[in-house]
């Protein structure tokens, strides 16, 4: 049994409405099917990331054993950065978590790994915990570059931060995101093992063994149990299925660890 607490994040992306978010929060609060002999959050840490405008409602109404994350933060402190939200503001609002470097931001907003590393450094300095997303595109996997890509995404972060205790690494192969094409447990485990090895070599064996490496990409209620049995998969970052009651079944997969 790993000492790393299982982690399940729900990334709601740019989805929802006032009424849909209310329904979803109600579903999570009821927690139907979350059956453990202990409190579920003794064995799994659950964090959901709504659209920024929906955060205040979710923060107020969501069961307090689940946490709320922002989906992004600005690279610096508050100031003349129209449309952005700084880590200072997130922290002041009582948030503990932020997702950084999601592949959608890397590709659509052209965020580089250096920029993501700067954001990571700043958010950690402000006391936020970071879900740091990495992952290769299909053509990179096909060219056998997966390990090089994840290393190149992690290197600028390792150059900037010393303390990894508030970082969860989310391995999300881009070809598996929102496609229904989940990585096989073998494919995911292979990369997670590689990332842990990289952390051991480039940061320290202690950081490698304590850092949670979670998987994201078409995780669903029908594949989460099997993925959870993999040695180096410490949880999930869930997109589409986190908007449905299925999210509870994915949380329940922590029992497979
Ligand atoms: O952040 C979550 C990932 O992008 C996965 O999304 P998905 O579960 O819809 O494939």
Automatic annotation (TrEMBL):
Gene Ontology biological-process annotations: gluconeogenesis; glyceraldehyde-3-phosphate biosynthetic process; glycerol catabolic process; glycolytic process
GO molecular function: triose-phosphate isomerase activity
Stretches assigned to coiled coil: none
Keywords: Isomerase
Pathway listed: Carbohydrate biosynthesis
Transmembrane annotation, as ranges: none
GO annotation, cellular component aspect: cytosol
Oligomer status and interactors: Homodimer.
NCBIfam families: tim
Similarity annotation: Belongs to the triosephosphate isomerase family.
Protein name in UniProt: Triosephosphate isomerase
């Amino acid at each position: 049994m790993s000492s790393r607490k299982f982690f399940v994040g729900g990334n709601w992306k740019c989805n929802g409405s006032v009424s849909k978010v209310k329904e979803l929060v109600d579903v999570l609060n009821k927690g139907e099917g979350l059956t453990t002999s202990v409190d579920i959050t003794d064995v799994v840490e659950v964090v959901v990331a709504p659209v920024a405008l929906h955060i205040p409602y979710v923060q107020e109404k969501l069961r307090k054993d689940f946490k709320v994350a922002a989906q992004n933060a600005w690279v610096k402190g508050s100031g003349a950065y129209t449309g952005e939200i700084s880590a200072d503001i997130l922290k002041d609002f009582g948030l503990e978590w932020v997702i950084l470097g999601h592949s959608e931001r890397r590709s659509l907003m052209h965020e580089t790994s250096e920029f993501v590393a700067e954001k990571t450094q700043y958010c950690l300095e402000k006391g936020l915990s970071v879900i740091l997303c990495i992952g290769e595109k299909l053509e990179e996997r096909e060219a056998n570059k997966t390990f090089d890509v994840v290393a190149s995404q992690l290197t600028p972060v390792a150059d900037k931060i010393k303390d990894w205790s508030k970082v969860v690494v989310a391995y999300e192969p881009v070809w598996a995101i929102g496609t229904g094409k989940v990585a096989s447990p073998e494919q995911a485990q292979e990369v997670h093992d590689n990332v842990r090895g990289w952390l051991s070599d480039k940061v320290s064996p202690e950081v490698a063994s304590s850092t949670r490496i979670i998987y994201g990409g078409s995780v669903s209620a029908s594949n989460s149990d099997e993925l959870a049995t993999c040695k180096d998969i410490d949880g999930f970052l869930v997109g589409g299925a986190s908007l449905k009651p299925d999210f509870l079944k994915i949380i329940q997969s922590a029992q497979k660890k």
